[in-house]
Amino acid sequence: MTAEPVDGAAPLGETLLLDEDDAAAGADLKGKVREAWQEFARTVASVLPTLAPGTVLDVTLDPTASGTGDAVYEVRITVGESGELTATAVSNALLPDGYRLDRNAIGALVALGWSPPGVLDGSGDLFGLRLPASDANRLAIIVSRTLRDVYGAPHPAFLTYEANDAAGESVQVPALGAARLLAAGAADADTDEEAADRALAHLADDVAALPLADQVAAVVATLLKTTPDALSVDPDGDIGIRAGSAMVFVRIRDNPPLIDVFSPVLTEVEPTEQLYVKLSELTNRMPIGRLYCTNDTVWASVPVFGRDFQPTHLMLAVQVMTGLADELDDRLHGEFGGKRFFGEGDKPAIKGREDHGTGMYL
């Protein structure tokens, strides 16, 4: 197959400009995140012309911070002998099930200017792109949009990068915005929690001056690998997160400032003494939060202080609640009946349950 010139690809157009009109945007969440991506693109554009021929620059969505597991979303830029810039981007051939790009994402890559895998000479199973050195700014924008809009990086703080020369030796390059430089030969890699904490801490610095609601939206969106605009928010302003057969809500209370991460674990359940005993036992075992029953609904709740807000505290609360709610609704439904939030075909409580002693619940 003959390689198709990149110059013949779909034109960038106005939609790929760096939103210059937004440079003076106020201190809102979207503006802060946008500024971080603009800074990332600007620094990439300024670094590329300084790299010697043969240098390879890898920019990766950190899988430990973003929770993508074995899926590695990466863009590689190689500086040619004559200064031309060749870039490759990960395709579905290298992505595991559950993390592959859908048709819309693939269309977005082509619209950005990427040639499909195998079209550009030497691209193999990767999307390819080749531009002259004078188009470093254009390439930087394409790379930024690819990582953000297609691969789903919520913020440049979730990116890592490294550069190596033609012999494979590490090359020191200036900081690429909020992205993190991988130290050459580093022996101590971040754990999943450390990487996530680091990325969240960086994001927290960007949004610290914003209203609490915007900070909470930023953290939840980061955990869900989406954007604040794409969160599911009900008419009461609660953010909804599906967790298997359960639903978890994140609600912000003003007085006192508090974030309540809660779930209606079961509804239409009979509030019996055995149920109260069970909930008390389970609450005593929980490291944080509580279980309780009001009227005919069993609730699980983990509060987070809104004053001196710490993103990692909310991250922990959401992670605990999503796992807890999905497990508890099944367990409690099997013993006490009622309805789970997404429990199609739920049945009443098991007959004869009242004949069991409390020992079975311990």
From TrEMBL:
Gene3D superfamilies attached to this UniProt entry? 3.30.1460.10
What is the top-level taxon of the source organism? Bacteria
Domain TY-Chap N-terminal stretches: 35-159
**Domain TY-Chap central: from-to ranges:** 212-343
Q: Tell me the protein's name.
A: YbjN domain-containing protein
The signal peptide, as residue positions, is: none
Q: Which InterPro entries match?
A: TY-Chap_M, TY-Chap_N
